[in-house]
Amino acid sequence: MKKSLIFIASLTFGTAVSQAAVLCSTTFNRTGTSLDTVTVNTTSDVGLTSSTSISSDDFSKSTSGNDLLASGSIPASVFSPNANVGGAGNNTWSVSFTFTNTGSQDMLISSIDLSMVGFTGAGAAQNGGNGIANNGYVGGYEGNFNKPVDMTLSIDGQPDQTLTYNGSTAANGSTGAWTGIHTGSHTYDDFLLKAGESLTITITASNNSAYNKGCFAGLSGIQINGDLVVPEPATASLGLLGLAALMMRRRRL
Question: Where is the signal peptide (predicted)?
C-alpha cells in the first residue's frame, strides 16, 4: 500500500504545475505587392493556430488601396503595408489576425510580442539620418538615430496596448540594416482563452508625435506567450483520493 500512496502523491503534485510557454509564433512570406501574396505561418506546440492568409476585410490603411510595399530590398519575411506612418500626414495602417485554441486545455495569455522593422519608401532598411534622441523607444539607439512609430495592439475585452518602436534599423545616419528588427512585449493580466475559442488581435501602426519626417513600418513576427491552465490541485486530489480508496479496497478483497 505504501507504493500506491507514493505514486498517488506524485500525481497530485504534478497537477499543480503550470507550464509557462510560447503558445505560438507567427511569421510571414510575401511574394508580391498585393495582400493575397502574403502567407501567414503559425507554429505552436499547444494547438494555437491561425489562418494561413490575410483577408482584405481584416486589413486597412489610410492611403488608398490595400497594396503592400515590396520594392527595393525589403525581405519577403516582412509584411509591409504601403503607408508612410512616420510622416507628417498622420497615415495609419491596421491588420487583424485571429488565433484559435484547438488544443484540449484552456490558456492564459500574459503577453504578445510584436517584431517590427522600419524602411524607406524606396524599399531600403531605414537609416537614422534626421532622427531624434532616444526617449525609451523599443529598440532605441543612443544619440539622434531614432525614428519613433506607435504600434497599438487591440483585443476585445482588454485595454489597448501602445508601444513606441524605433523605426531606424541602425545607429548611424546613412545606411540601415535588415537585421535591425525591434521586438516589444505588450503585456496583459493573464486573460483566459478557452479550448475551442478564438482570439482576434488588431495591430495598428501610426505616427508618433515626436517625429514626422517619414518612416514606413513592417511586421516581421508575432509571438503569443502564456500558460496552459491545469486542473485545480484540490479537484485533482479528490479524484486521486477516490482512486486510493478503491485500490485499498481491492487489496482487502
Answer: 1-20
* Per-residue pLDDT reduced to its tens digit, 191-207: 999 999 999 999 999 99
Please, which residues have CB within 8 angstroms of residue 46's CB and are 6 or more apart in sequence? 21, 23, 24, 103, 105, 107, 228
CB atoms within 10 A of CB 32: 12
Q: Enter the pTM of the model.
A: 0.85
pLDDT at residue 237 above 70? no
Identify whether 187 is part of a domain.
yes
Q: How many domains does the chain have?
A: 1
In a domain, 249, yes or no: no
Paired sense of beta strands 93-101 and 59-61, if any: antiparallel
Q: How far is CA 29 from CA 84, 116, 147, 220, 224, in A?
A: 21, 15, 26, 9, 19
